[in-house]
Amino acid sequence: MTTPAILPATPEPTHPCLRCGRPVAIDIALCDECNPLGLQQPAATQVHALAAGGIVLFVVILALLARLGLSGVGPFSGVAGDVAAAPGGGLALTVTVSNGGSKDAATTCRVVEAGGSAGGPSQVIQTPVVPAGASITFSAAVAAFGDEPLALAVDCDSP
Length: 159
Hints:
159 residues, alpha+beta, 2 domains, 3-stranded antiparallel sheet, 8 strands, 31% strand
């Protein structure tokens, strides 16, 4: 006569106690030593809601800081001036940029061929700091249009 094999009991799934690391059942957060009074433990949805709320609050704070940092900057407008061949290749472009805002700021301007197609060559240039309510004129080197002077246009970004 053969005796049936006794299978070992499958262990209950556990995870570490949140405070001390001892193994506890999967449905509780703290072991008996860390929670001697058996107080109600937070539900998973409560923990996830707290984390999601923190993320939303952080995004709102970042948006407010961005708004404060960018208020009063721009709008900017740019006008292309003289275009000449630059020593060593490329073109030297004179650009006038106006800042219509209430804060000093720098911006980027896209230089394109005047009257050119939308897919034509372009180059982005960084302006120096433009005082609030004022204009500056500066020279920029552009290499995307070859060495022969041609009519160029400038479009400056506003935040």
